[in-house]
Amino acid sequence: MLWYNPSELSFRFERNIKKLRMKRKEEISNRIKIGIFGFGKTGRIVADEFFKEDHFRLEWVVRRTHKDHHKYATRLLGHEVDGAPIYSVDEVSPSFFQKNPVDIIVDFASARAHEHYMPAADCGIRIISAISKYKEKDLVDLKKLADKTAVLYSPNITLGVNFLLVASQILQKIAPHADIEIVEEHFRGKKEVSGTAFKIAETLGLDKDKHVNSIRVGGIVGRHEIIFGLPNQTIRLVHESINRAAFGQGAIFAARWLVDAPAGMYSMENIIADMFKRNIPVY
């Protein structure tokens, strides 16, 4: 017959519970803290991807309007937990980033949003921008931020598109005399030409007005095709976003890399090209 002391058993159980709680608390405190600008269709999905990822902690969301003011983003995303309060951009002052510190700001808002987080660089907060329609002045502002902190700017932050950029440059060097056309397809409501398509044209040294072809039908999230026409063959490089979660996964990849990067301007294309050279797996 086994003998045990109920009090001793209870003490050990409580001690193990405390250890597990302390370990959990330490794991949470070591997570990369994320603040997000933008809570539209894509911003919501990106926020959800970060929330579900164990290496990150979604701290807050900033949106342009007062909609859902001070509600919890996690609740609006369908999670039964209070986290990531939503602030209006009107509430963002230089002291905001001192009171609500994060490791990285992820911007899926608009071309003007960076004007509100310029002071974040003084706090050492790193920046990821996935805005596709910057003007020259906006890019100058990003470079000013990069003098103080690490800034990663990619108009299309999906891994696939940036692989496409690298692969197309390699193919262009192999077949420099090929005819090249770019076809971009998006949902019917997207009025402007894809910033990603313009980026591809610029990277390949093509006139965007002559070599970018746009199609707007149905609910296509995003499809980019680069066609290389040779005398006896055609080569097509294609990337298609099936779900906007692809942008969230790209942002997560970027954040993992950026968190230890020194001040400077970076892009997903440069990072992936470097990883290819060194044969480092992307996933």
Question: What characteristics describe this protein?
Answer:
4-stranded mixed beta sheet; alpha/beta; single chain; 2 domains; 7-stranded parallel beta sheet; globular; Rossmann fold; Dihydrodipicolinate Reductase, domain 2; 283 residues
Describe the structure concisely for a colleague.
The chain has helices spanning 6-29, 41-52, 73-76, 96-99, 114-117, 136-146, 159-174, 195-203, 208-211, 245-258, 268-277, and strands at 32-37, 56-63, 86-88, 104-107, 126-129, 150-153, 179-186, 212-216, 222-230, 233-241, 264-266. With 283 residues, it is an alpha/beta fold. The protein has two domains: 27-153 and 245-277, Rossmann fold (3-Layer(aba) Sandwich), CATH 3.40.50.720; 159-241, Dihydrodipicolinate Reductase, domain 2.
Say which CATH homologous superfamily of the largest domain is assigned: NAD(P)-binding Rossmann-like Domain
Q: Write down the domain tally.
A: 2
Strand-pairing-aware structural class = alpha/beta
Name of the CATH first level of the largest domain: Alpha Beta
Largest sheet, strands/sense/barrel: 7 strands, parallel
Instruction: Tally the beta strands.
Output: 11
The Rg value, from CA coordinates, equals: 23 Å
Instruction: List the secondary-structure elements in sequence, H or E.
Output: HEHEHEHEHEHEHEHHEEEHEH
Written overview of the protein:
There is one protein chain. By secondary structure, the chain is of the alpha/beta class. The protein folds into two domains: 27-153 and 245-277, NAD(P)-binding Rossmann-like Domain (Rossmann fold), CATH 3.40.50.720; 159-241, Dihydrodipicolinate Reductase, domain 2 (2-Layer Sandwich). Helices cover 40% and strands 22% of the residues. The protein is built from eleven helices and eleven strands. The strands form two sheets. It has a seven-stranded parallel β-sheet, sandwiched between helices. A four-stranded mixed β-sheet has the order 8-7-9-10. Helix 2 crosses helix 10 and helix 7 packs across helix 11 (268-277). The termini are far apart.
